[in-house]
Amino acid sequence: MTGEAEDDDEIQLEVDAAAEGLRLDRFLADRVSGSSRSLIQKHIDEGAVLVNGAAPRRSAATPLKAGDLVSYLVPAPEAVELVAEDIPLEILFEDAHVLVLNKPAGLVVHPAAGHPRGTLVNALLHHIKDLGGIGGELRPGIVHRLDQGTTGVMIVAKHDQSHRALVEAFQARTVQKRYLAVVTGIPTPEQGTIDTLFGRHPSDRKKFSSKVKTGKQAITKYAVRERFAGGALLEVDLLTGRTHQIRVHLADRGHPLIGDATYGTRRSLSPRETALRTIVERFARPALHAERLALSHPMTGEPLVFTAPVPPDLVALLAALRAL
Length: 324
Prior knowledge:
The chain has 324 residues and is an alpha+beta fold.
């Protein structure tokens, strides 16, 4: 899932010593996902941002001091016109009620700031007649999401009744979601459960963290499937579906996904690991693949299991790691 501010989401940020002296607009642009600096400047002018409870004296150019409290009431996003687009889909299963597909890397799930078109929703509107409005105007048919860089199995509802049933199944945690993740280092122990609170990062609002004092519960199970010199292939089962959950849980334990520029490769590589460093730097997306989805059919109750083949770039990454 992507990390974006929800409608009417009030964000409160305390300015730390490292941010002292920054302009107000720059400070917010660095910390609020989905908001450009120009959009933030517009919101400041409209009165959506307060510093220590008052309107900033110099508007967007107001310099901040350590300890200042910045409040940002994020306005609801402007309406996006949904347009059907003929974008190819790799369909794994389809009937009158649901569609299951193998999402490629780079495909955004639904329109948002910076991605008004070219999304999975645009493709679905072309493929499925009368989809508009199913489950929401901007996200018709969508019951769960994968990050832009994540590949693998997704299920989509084709009418309101199946949408409601699928949403309930995900909320009840009766849907089994298994991922493949390639990380740096080998986790210890080699299998386990990560159970933490989960929320926005306290100092970088574009990121999420499992090291928060308040938040929602996030549960991730993992097991090492294969070891490499300096890395590992993991099977990961999600028991909850928080934004960036797998990426954050593994990175916060010192084993970030290869290719994850947001949460970074925290494990330092020694000079002798030049080959591994080259492999890590060349992989252009988080090495995460939704391999398997198991659930009951939302209308018939029939057990369904879907798998998506490992994509070519991940196959090549694993081959390179095995060759070290």
